[in-house]
User: Which sequence fits this backbone?
């Protein structure tokens, strides 16, 4: 490792140490985030569905536990582990979803949401403890930048080991795309089936939410190789932050709109539905086209679709795109993501704040993520990044931010 590499590693490690509120955040978030998941599920099925109801709708111990829940959760996890090891993992995953949709009583997932969320939370803690302990046997080059601070609370939260494996089984890559992400779609489908049981047919709002989010997950699975270049894989360690996000936060909070619609059905006119479909379509187009352009440029800068794009040279030997989608804003994929997030919330109407929790949370997440990426790129590319920022001044929203 050269002196410049060592300096960069030290700088990135120092910056990461102060992420997410440091030790205070690392201690509070493993408590606060699981309680938030349970709170949101309880509120979504309460008659008022109010985020400000006091006292909040607290579940009984019977509502938190069902012996079927751990069997389903661990069985689902094991099935995906088997599918992951098969050569046709994506095809097998789609086939599994079809089997579930055709034969399983998915409507019962509505009753099992809380017990399943409790199982996901418990497994997240146990899995994170295992990852933290095993990281002390990992070689130093396998540790994440900033995940080896010596502070056990922070290292447990952020993750010490970058990409832990059992043999050839990549634990982080598996959890990023398999059980939680596909589980989100299955939970949505369960909410749709529950609505059919209650009202005889699914509402237009429920169909839109299911369709939009199914498209998003299908896109992620179809382009799963692209996850290898994301911040989660390249930079962040695999600790509680990502484990909990993958196994608990994503499936049980991203499905919040569908869960809300079961108890709080919303009438949606065809005109409003068309406008929402158009919004989601625009968001998806921006999201997919910008990501595809970036991935193609990384794979082959001489490809005809990207060869004519203007770039800036950096001291690392890499080049930064300053035209095409990436000349519009620094993160056009985030812009598309946020337009889709808004389209997922709009079918739920404006009578309650709860179904709009996702767009508020996701906006905050992407702004924070963009700021992290900004610090890392400035440390990595130096003056070239400053030049890029002058050429592309807007971060996510053109002429706004």
Assistant:
């Amino acid at each position: 490792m050269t002196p410049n590499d060592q300096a960069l590693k030290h700088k990135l490690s120092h910056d990461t140490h102060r992420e997410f509120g440091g030790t205070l955040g690392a201690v509070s978030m493993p408590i606060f985030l699981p309680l938030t998941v349970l709170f949101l599920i309880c509120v979504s099925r309460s008659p008022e569905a109010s985020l400000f109801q006091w006292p909040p709708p607290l579940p009984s111990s019977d509502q938190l536990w069902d012996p079927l829940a751990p069997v389903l959760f661990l069985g689902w996890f094991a099935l995906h582990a088997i599918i992951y090891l098969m050569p046709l993992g994506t095809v097998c995953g789609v086939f599994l979803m079809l089997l579930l949709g055709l034969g399983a009583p998915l409507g019962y997932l509505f009753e099992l949401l809380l017990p399943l969320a409790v199982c996901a939370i418990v497994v997240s803690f146990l899995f994170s403890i295992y990852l933290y302990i095993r990281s002390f046997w990992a070689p130093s080059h396998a540790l994440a930048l900033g995940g080896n601070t010596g502070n056990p609370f922070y290292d447990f939260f952020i993750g010490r080991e970058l990409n832990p494996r059992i043999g050839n089984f990549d634990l982080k890559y598996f959890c990023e795309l398999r059980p939680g992400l596909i589980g989100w779609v299955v939970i949505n489908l369960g909410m749709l089936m529950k609505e059919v049981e209650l009202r005889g047919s699914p509402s237009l709002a429920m169909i839109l939410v299911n369709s939009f989010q199914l498209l998003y997950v299908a896109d992620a699975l179809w382009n799963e190789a692209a996850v290898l270049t994301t911040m989660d894989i390249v930079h962040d360690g695999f600790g509680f932050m990502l484990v909990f996000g993958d196994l608990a936060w994503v499936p049980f909070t991203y499905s919040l709109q569908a869960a809300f619609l079961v108890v709080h059905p919303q009438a949606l006119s065809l005109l409003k539905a068309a406008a929402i479909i158009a919004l989601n379509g625009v968001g998806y187009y921006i999201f997919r086209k910008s990501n595809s352009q970036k991935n193609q440029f990384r794979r082959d800068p001489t490809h005809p679709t990207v060869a004519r794009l203007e770039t800036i040279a950096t001291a690392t030997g890499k080049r930064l795109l300053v035209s095409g989608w990436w000349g519009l804003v620094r993160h056009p994929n985030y812009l598309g993501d946020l337009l889709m997030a808004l389209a997922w919330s709009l079918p739920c109407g404006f009578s309650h704040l709860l179904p709009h929790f996702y767009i508020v949370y996701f906006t905050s997440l992407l702004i924070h993520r963009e700021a992290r990426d900004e610090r890392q790129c400035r440390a990595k590319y130096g003056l070239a990044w400053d030049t890029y920022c002058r050429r592309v001044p807007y971060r996510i929203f053109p002429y706004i931010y």
Remarks:
- The CA atoms of residues 128 and 240 lie 5 Å apart.
- Residues 1-17 have pLDDT under 50 and may be disordered.
